[in-house]
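Quick illustration for those who missed Monday's session on complexes.
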Amino acid sequence: MNECLIKAIRAVGEEIIKNKEWLTELDSAIGDADHGINMARGFTAVDAKLDSLLGEKDAAAVLKAVGMTLISTVGGASGPLYGTAFLRAAAAVPGKTAVGRDEVAAILAAAITGIKDRGKAVQGEKTMLDALEPAYKAFESGAAEGKTLAGCLALARDAAGQGVEYTKTIIATKGRASYLGERSLGHQDPGATSTHIILAALADFCRNTEEG
Amino acid sequence: MNECLIKAIRAVGEEIIKNKEWLTELDSAIGDADHGINMARGFTAVDAKLDSLLGEKDAAAVLKAVGMTLISTVGGASGPLYGTAFLRAAAAVPGKTAVGRDEVAAILAAAITGIKDRGKAVQGEKTMLDALEPAYKAFESGAAEGKTLAGCLALARDAAGQGVEYTKTIIATKGRASYLGERSLGHQDPGATSTHIILAALADFCRNTEEG
Amino acid sequence: MKKVINDPEQVVEEMLQGMIAAHPQYVRRVQGFNVLVRANSPVAGKVALVSGGGSGHEPSHGGFVGRGMLDGAVAGAVFTSPTPDQVYEAVKAVDGGKGVLLVIKNYTGDVMNFEMAAELASADGVQVDKVIVNDDVAVENSTWTVGRRGIAGTVFVHKIAGAKAETGAELAEVKRVAEKVIANVRSMGMALAPCTVPAAGKPSFVLAENEIEIGMGIHGEPGTHRETIRSADEIATHLAEKIFADNPLKAGDSVALMINGLGATPLMELYIVAHKVTALLAAKQVKLVKTFVGNYMTSLEMAGFSISVLKLDEELQKLLLAPADTPAFVQM
Amino acid sequence: MKKVINDPEQVVEEMLQGMIAAHPQYVRRVQGFNVLVRANSPVAGKVALVSGGGSGHEPSHGGFVGRGMLDGAVAGAVFTSPTPDQVYEAVKAVDGGKGVLLVIKNYTGDVMNFEMAAELASADGVQVDKVIVNDDVAVENSTWTVGRRGIAGTVFVHKIAGAKAETGAELAEVKRVAEKVIANVRSMGMALAPCTVPAAGKPSFVLAENEIEIGMGIHGEPGTHRETIRSADEIATHLAEKIFADNPLKAGDSVALMINGLGATPLMELYIVAHKVTALLAAKQVKLVKTFVGNYMTSLEMAGFSISVLKLDEELQKLLLAPADTPAFVQM
Ligand SMILES: Nc1ncnc2c1ncn2[C@@H]1O[C@H](COP(=O)(O)OP(=O)(O)O)[C@@H](O)[C@H]1O
Ligand SMILES: Nc1ncnc2c1ncn2[C@@H]1O[C@H](COP(=O)(O)OP(=O)(O)O)[C@@H](O)[C@H]1O
Ligand SMILES: [Mg+2]
Ligand SMILES: [Mg+2]
Ligand SMILES: [Mg+2]
Ligand SMILES: [Mg+2]
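Prediction with magnesium ion bound:
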């Protein structure tokens, strides 16, 4: 199953790298034109790191390695934030060798807490949290309805997508975009967008796995 | 008659200033884009200087003041060259209170010697000499044929114009344009052009004076 | 994108190699990291200063590594904060036993990455403290933002805290002086033309032929607003007055002034700005102790400039005028 | 044309006023002239150095007026040699009784105007001599031209002859050293983008997005040829090899290196060039005594750079490393 986790993370990385230019373009509108570049650099390094973890049984060990790699390669604001999210995710699934629906729920919850601890933002400040928090809620409600992991992730992805749309309607009060004041209106947040991409990649990956 | 000289020099200045942009454009092709700016600055200063010379009877004094003014305001290569030309012109008409055909011939000859002494160029190096030397020759042949001052100056102007055309066909070996080597081919020399403008203005002025 | 580079992915690496090849008297590289430290680091018996941030602000920060200023500089990717492990290596390489002060420009990414590094180094038993520079008055409503940004005024922090550290002062003292500089320095910038992050390949924004951007940051991010270009005197007065409004000056005050080029603005234009700003200060009967005109905190090849005014007391003045010897800042 | 200026006709005047307002410790203006001299000029018992040329090359030359370098700098209109009367005033203001050396860049206008000034000053009984700098190897066939141009290598003449003058040496000695520098320094430049003379209002040439100009002068005049843009390493190698061909280096030789920005090129790119050129020198087993990277001899906001290599003997090396204290060049 951790082979599966590794594959899932690789799938996430592929999507991030595919969207490198788009994310950078979004960041050039309200930031400093590097979000895609940063994330792609990070997930390229993660991909290499995962090669050395192929035999790893412990999900927490994989997640921790991913977190450390992101922290040491992404930089900027998103590096410590996504990195911390993965480190906390690791701490949320100690010793687990299989990652199912409940584990993913715990991972999402821990990631949110980690991002909030590190970045001191709350929902509504035009950050990745505006995608991740609604995604987690949707995931939880899917789980309450007894949906599969893939089903829950599909809900999470859609909620994240709505969260991205929502970021267009608000003024940034955290991160670099906050310097723009009203000028940040109308633009979607790059970090929320990358969170959406990550969740979409995970949803796709799990649907294919469950179906295949 | 020196009132006339002063008026003639003012007429020259007007034409130079009118052609400021064009001369600069010519210089931007094979030089450093300042010949028109330099010459216009110089003749603007000359115009102001002439105000203080209205009562001056001595042609040499007027020409010397013009030369000094050009030297101290034009700068670049053309400043010392045109300035020296006027200083030498002054020396060629000591004490004269009237400037007729013979005086102008002496002035042109002295100017050429001055420019050559100062700039060490000869004809065919793509400089102002390529306009001035044929102009002087044409002036002299007109004088030999008994033409009036205006007639001689018309010949000089036309010869200078041909000289300008000739500069398009040669490679510069003096001044800034020489750095271009073959790339200076096809372009007319800015300094030859300003010499042509000066002679044309003088020819016009004298024709009007003789006719009027 | 037209640049003198080899590979957009290698610009930071090759720049750092160029810096150590050019200035071995001043700096060496911490092997395997994008960290420059003094050739003789660690300096025993001295608090060490570490700064850094995204690359593209050269000579900030590597150019200020040397006696009287920084001990170490960490270079992130272009306009991207360096990662904690890089900062951590810098701290370890420069610590001479008296502790390390991190000079951080106030950007979310910089603050988080440097703080994570401080946590790592503290866990190792290194005494680490930090100051956060936020001199940019363009960002007005700081209750609604993450606070003002750090821009060119940071160089005054390097200079003055660096001079203090050189006296053998304790970490708390060096930090106190750095915070005093931060409390007294204000800056604001503008841009005529954008810059292009090599890896992005195109300019981060576009300005019309008659448009300028006011309140520029130093990362190619847009400023606070755009306006039609005005005369140098009008622009300089506008920026200076925002600075004066935020940190009022009275007759008899002493200041240091920096007219900082953003990368592509010729010194001629910077001196034309200096001409106006020095006149504004003279009109206020403010004493100008020293003026710095040049490229200190750049934004790649952005055209534009920033003005920084630092109010000086006797302590700051003495430290400002103390000697410094670094690749990009030498003072007798 | 997008510039931080007030009036194209006033740029030199306002720049000079800005320079004296910014650096009263270093320079003062000769009243009524576009001449900057040391604050304490004339310095008695010392040969004085005067240089200058068109404006737009800042920090050349006013930025190099100060102890250990120039005594006076004359600023012409943008890219236009100053007039003899201006140079003459500079000579008079700095002559401390031991004579004055004029450092002239080899351009027809500069040479003629400075020579006319020398004639005026000599007639006054001032001991005046001159050297003409012609370091630019781009201009090859010097029998067909007025000879090579003077570009960034001129700064080495200022530095080294300035240091010699500071020792109290006689005019002939200072001149000898200046000529030795001229004999041993070679430079070559390139441009990515043109510049605009304020009074002209538009760029002096146009380059396509993928075109560069090789063998650039410093007056916005075209270079020797155009080519398609190549990598930094290739361009740097091309320029360096032209320099090496003109003044061959052998293992064990000592040199100083200058990677000079033309105005709009970020330090990052200059250091990428430095990375390559220092490697080429190392491969030749040449000893690199000191490397200067930055904007020393600019061409307004032109993008591009030049490389200068100065072969050093013991005398030149010692003088190069001697202290200097000027607005734009400080060395401990
Ligand atoms: N305090 C914060 N909390 C959560 N997310 C944040 C915070 N600050 C910034 N972000 C996220 O980081 C993204 C920008 O990341 P990136 O461009 O990589 O870093 P930087 O802004 O340092 O260049 C923003 O779009 C936003 O989603
Ligand atoms: N040695 C010389 N002898 C005669 N004329 C010269 C010489 N050198 C340059 N010129 C003339 O000067 C003109 C350029 O003048 P200008 O642009 O004002 O000076 P600069 O070249 O210093 O910028 C050239 O077009 C040429 O006609
Ligand atoms: Mg960003
Ligand atoms: Mg010219
Ligand atoms: Mg960034
Ligand atoms: Mg000129």
